[in-house]
């Protein structure tokens, strides 16, 4: 679609969110401890962008919106749709495996030493195939389209994909699928928001409309350790049956999310943009990482947010200087620091700041007021 007709070209919505959590471990590292980062010379609590994006995707689905599937198990996905289209179990399996082999590479690795070869001093090495960590993001429409093409050829995958070279096979399938045109009513919004990269078939690539920073605490944080015991209901001896420890922290996080409206309009082929933005805003509001929620519940909503509609370069608050508590609160000085930084940058950027509207969540403005503000700046008639 011609970019010159894009009514949102160069326009973005920026979310600056402050959200406080008590005793939690929202996002764990490889040893189960809360993730951290050093910012401005002090250790901060951190929640990765991937973690929060995942839960925003789940929240969008919980709102009843269809969404794509991001998986290595493509064979199962295609086979299930082929079965729905009338394929036999054997045909469906072959179709699914054909597509999976195109996009999900396998690597050979030693499985262990086998019997000695008759003419060699070294033992034979047995190998086994193992899937790589590649994940493919497919929309429901694309899965259906692949199954339909298979059906037209009698569910003979070799009649659909005739090339022998894997890269050429990917290109052949990409041509059958055509340029991605996502529809909010049938494909969901997640691919349009979070993008897709397909190394084997670049025509399937979708540029992400949303970008997330890692959430960091506005203040210094040191992880703490909880020691716990568990008692046996049928105990025969005094004392605990199990002892353990878990790390946790508490923090006020700064979250930054930028939504490129022009890119979203392009990804959705100019349709349902206002509905998509409203759904995304609500998902940002309700999504909370799920780690250890059964034992360290983190069910805290936004405390404060400044949402602006702007043109020009993105602007994130670094919180390079760790906030110190004032009057027993970290949140209040965090709000003041965020407001002061953005106000100062607006003054310094002058005409390049490009602010078209701004609203603050908190006080008299709840999430409904924020959605109404966004809807006013992303009108349906612009689509």
Describe the structure.
The chain is of the alpha+beta class and 383 residues long. It folds into two domains: 3-67 and 207-230 and 243-382, no CATH class; 74-183, no CATH class. The chain is built from twelve helices and 13 strands. The strands form three sheets. Strands 1, 2, 3, 8, 9, 10, 11, 12 and 13 form a nine-stranded antiparallel beta sheet that branches. A two-stranded antiparallel ribbon has the order 4-7. 33% of the residues are buried.
Outline:
The protein is an alpha+beta fold.
What descriptive keywords fit this protein?
two-stranded antiparallel sheet, 9-stranded antiparallel β-sheet, 383 residues, 2 domains, alpha+beta
Counted beta strands: 13
Spans of at least 5 consecutive residues whose pLDDT stays below 50 are: 113-129
What fraction strand?
Answer: 25-35%
- The percent range for helix content is 25-40%
Quaternary structure: single chain
Number of helices: 12
Structural category is alpha+beta
Radius of gyration computed on alpha carbons = 26 Å
What is the total number of structural domains? 2
One letter per element, helices H and strands E, the order comes to EEEHEHHEEEHHHHHEEEEHHEHEH
What is the overall shape? Answer: globular
Question: What is the distance, rounded to the nearest whole angstrom, between the alpha carbons of the first and last residues?
Answer: 13 Å
- Mean pLDDT, to the nearest integer, reads 88
* Main β-sheet description: 9 strands, antiparallel
